[in-house]
Amino acid sequence: MKDLEREYHKILSDYVKDQNERNLYIGQNFVRQLIRRNVAPEDVVSLHKEAVESIFPEEIEGLRTAYDFLIEMMVHYGMALREHQSLVQKQAELQIEMNIAANVQKTMLQTKMPNSNEIEIGMLSTPLKTVNGDYVHFIDDENYVSIAVTDVVGKGVPAALCMSMVKYGLETMRESGHIPSRVLAVLNRIVEQNVDDSMFISMFYGCFVLEENKFYYGSAGHEPAFLYRAKEDKFHDLEANGMLLGIIPTARYIDNEVVLEKDDMIVIVTDGVTEFREDDTIDERGVVASLINDVKHLAPQQICEYLYQKLEEMHEFNLKDDFTVVVIKKN
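Request: output the structure for the sequence above.
Response:
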């Protein structure tokens, strides 16, 4: 530190004497040495104070208290600066992780919308932030069409990798894809063995068997789907009991079924669709059903887009979570 004191004394003395650009430039370059030596802001003020005392001994008395105050200020400034820099670094690291997770979703989690003469499907999934915690996967088999809507409570790379594991688990069960209870039970064991305890996964799994005109479904702690009966012009909840995936390896799931007739609809959502108000004084599922009812004559994709647009326009609308809706209409 003594060598820095001597060097700084000379730099300041030369600048006070001549006050030219060259001496100022030398002082600016001296900053690099201070940074390399990891000199704290308050120590820089101490250097300056001691140099001033040496150069202007007769004038320093009145300034000494002011310098002492500045040193104390710099102590706290240095602490706050280091805390801020640490936070900025963590945010940068988090952003890198989120970008990686988003890239994983784009490359590994792509799914193709089924093309069937029996049903028409629309889907909209809007993330709250960079990475979507919701995941929709379709399987288009010659005998059935299945839809899995998943909500992963967790973000970043771990959540994206969890979704990829769920995807490939679904793909390996094509032969039993028409039995929701079996699909959910297998996925439950996979998740329980491979996913951290801090992550929770809900899923609504549905399968439309073409020859039967039946929609088989099951749930692992997921938001109930909507069933619209065209003949009744009425909405019903598709309730299905089942524990979240990965909680208990021996959890059992139940198969449910409904017959779909012309213009009947199944609407599968995540809780980001039905939890959009700060207070609980409104029937949010009722609002969603009413909005869908207004445009039930439209194509499923148009219904999805209309629903999001209208909810976003509502007073006090507050998107708290990722927003995902799948509409299935019987032709």
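The chain has two domains: 2-91, 112-330.
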